[in-house]
């Protein structure tokens, strides 16, 4: 039975993988080999290449489909390298060389998994988008180079004659080549193959772009002057200019500066005969790519943090208004009771006058005037009460789906614990955003989760997010402790939730089986910024 359960679990996991993912995994060997061959102009006697675009293809795929596919990617790379003769099947060091091929995707997958974990569970500024992506682009090649160095130390595959195979040069070139391959290629591939995850504008503006362009041009003018004197340090002014572009214009400015610099440096280094000069140029380009991209990521993360603080301030402001509103409602009810009493008295008086054939016209006019005045007073009180705690307090804004769900889970953590219920939040892309009223969207999710907790004490509730062509789907699924009985039902709370979803251009769909119920909130998504 246990084997059958495992078999069923594997089938279920495979069936949930999107066709797009399988397509990317299918074409990956061809893309990897093509990128591997494209690196040859920057190779050398002691290393494979100082620019290794295949690393960028590998990283983009792992970041896109998830680290769980690392074993499959390892197998694909090994098969490609054996089939094309890069790793010779009958070579005495075949297993060592094959291990050298497999260690890189393994290191990349491990680092992507770690960064994704930090992004999901972390509370520090490193978990604020787009810092996780920036860190992963730098740390994945670094870990791969460290593993390569450790591997060569334990199972040497290089010649023992360091005059012909300098170990340090090989490891440094490995690190530089992978860093450049990832930082130059991965962002473009992720943008190209995932149209729904196109970068947002971030902090880029026309004025900042012009400022960064002027600084960048000045850096290259200085570099041109130094090139004839000392080519190994000629690119240093450009390094500073690229960092400035990242700080002022975010990842967009940083990546533009990196690409433009690479378009100049890579042809220059390919034609350069001096190995030391080539290595120095690529080291500077790698340092520029790391520093500029991390600077841009940090600048955007700071902007995100400021927006998050502002969002929380608005929520606290709204909570304080609602707290005051409760206190005001008691006083206003008391204030309304007096005009209502007056209205009741005057209405009875008018009724009596109407029954009396000999009524005083002036007396009736006075009563009507009094009724009109008291009615206006009550209407004004209600209008002020509604405007104080109304919808306009929470203005529509872009909302991070991941943060919204984390906030809801935190709010209901104690209630779930009391019911011995576990809320399991599946990993959510931190760049996924929707437009709407945050307090209202939170009300939907809290209603769904509270209903699930009431229906499933002692069990687990799962929250998962998927992205279709034009909508984000947030699904809350729970098992029913007593099959056939659903305390959540489709009562007033869910009717309100559905009305809110409809007001945001979405919908609330309910699916029920014999032992579980699933509520899916569908909302139109905004353009997402890939981390």
From TrEMBL:
InterPro entries: HATPase_C_sf, HATPase_dom, His_kinase_dom. GO terms for molecular function: kinase activity. Residues 331-527 form the Histidine kinase domain. Pfam families: HATPase_c. Keywords: Kinase, Membrane, Transferase, Transmembrane, Transmembrane helix. The chain crosses the membrane at residues 21-39, 126-151, 171-193, 200-223, 229-247, 254-271, 283-305. This is HAMP domain-containing histidine kinase. The lineage of its organism: Bacteria, Pseudomonadati, Pseudomonadota, Alphaproteobacteria, Sphingomonadales.
């Amino acid at each position: 039975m246990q084997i059958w359960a495992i078999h069923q679990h594997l089938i279920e996991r495979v069936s949930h993988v999107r066709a797009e993912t399988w397509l990317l995994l299918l074409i990956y060997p061809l893309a990897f080999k093509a990128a591997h061959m494209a690196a040859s102009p920057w190779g050398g006697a002691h290393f494979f290449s100082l620019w290794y675009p295949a690393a960028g293809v590998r990283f983009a795929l792992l970041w896109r489909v998830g680290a769980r596919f690392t074993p499959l990617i390892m197998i694909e790379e090994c098969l490609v390298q054996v089939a094309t003769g890069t790793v010779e099947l009958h070579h005495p060091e075949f297993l060592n060389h094959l291990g050298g091929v497999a260690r890189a995707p393994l290191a990349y997958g491990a680092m992507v998994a770690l960064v994704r974990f930090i992004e999901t569970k972390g509370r520090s500024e490193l978990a604020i988008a787009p810092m996780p992506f920036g860190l992963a682009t730098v740390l994945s090649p670094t870990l791969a180079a460290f593993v390569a160095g450790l591997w060569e130390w334990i199972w040497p595959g290089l010649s023992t004659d360091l005059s012909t195979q300098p170990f340090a040069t090989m490891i440094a070139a490995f690190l530089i080549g992978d860093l450049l391959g990832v930082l130059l290629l991965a962002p473009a591939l992720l943008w190209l193959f995932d149209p729904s995850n196109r970068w947002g504008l971030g902090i880029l503006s026309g004025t900042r772009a012009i400022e960064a362009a002027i600084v960048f041009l000045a850096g290259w003018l200085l570099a041109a002057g130094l090139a004839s004197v000392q080519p190994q340090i000629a690119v240093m002014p450009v390094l500073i200019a690229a960092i400035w572009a990242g700080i002022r214009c975010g990842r967009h400015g940083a990546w533009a500066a990196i690409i433009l610099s690479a378009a100049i440096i890579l042809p220059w280094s390919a034609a350069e005969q001096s190995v030391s000069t080539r290595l120095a140029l690529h080291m500077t380009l790698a340092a520029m790519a790391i520093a500029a991209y991390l600077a841009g990521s940090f600048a955007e993360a700071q902007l995100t943090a400021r927006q998050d603080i502002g969002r929380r301030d608005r929520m606290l402001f709204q909570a304080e208004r609602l707290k005051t509103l409760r206190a005001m409602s008691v006083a206003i009810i008391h204030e309304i009771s007096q005009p209502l009493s007056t209205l009741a008295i005057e209405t009875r008086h008018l009724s009596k006058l109407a029954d009396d054939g000999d009524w005083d016209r002036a007396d009736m006019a006075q009563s009507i005037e009094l009724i009109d005045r008291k009615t206006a007073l009550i209407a004004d009180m209600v209008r002020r009460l509604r405007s104080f705690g109304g919808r306009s307090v929470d203005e529509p804004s872009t909302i991070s789906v991941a943060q919204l769900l984390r906030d809801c889970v935190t709010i209901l953590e104690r209630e779930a614990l009391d019911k011995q219920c576990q809320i399991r939040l599946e990993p959510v892309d931190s760049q996924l955003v929707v437009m709407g009223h945050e307090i209202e969207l939170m009300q939907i999710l809290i209603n769904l989760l509270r209903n699930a907790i009431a229906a499933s004490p002692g069990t687990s509730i799962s929250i998962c997010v998927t992205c279709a062509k034009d909508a984000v789907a947030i699904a809350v699924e729970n098992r029913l402790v007593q099959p056939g009985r659903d305390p959540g039902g489709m009562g007033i709370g869910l009717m309100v939730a559905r009305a809110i979803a409809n007001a945001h251009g979405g919908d609330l769909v309910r699916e029920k089986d014999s032992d579980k119920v699933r509520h899916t909130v569908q909302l139109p998504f905004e353009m997402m910024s890939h981390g």
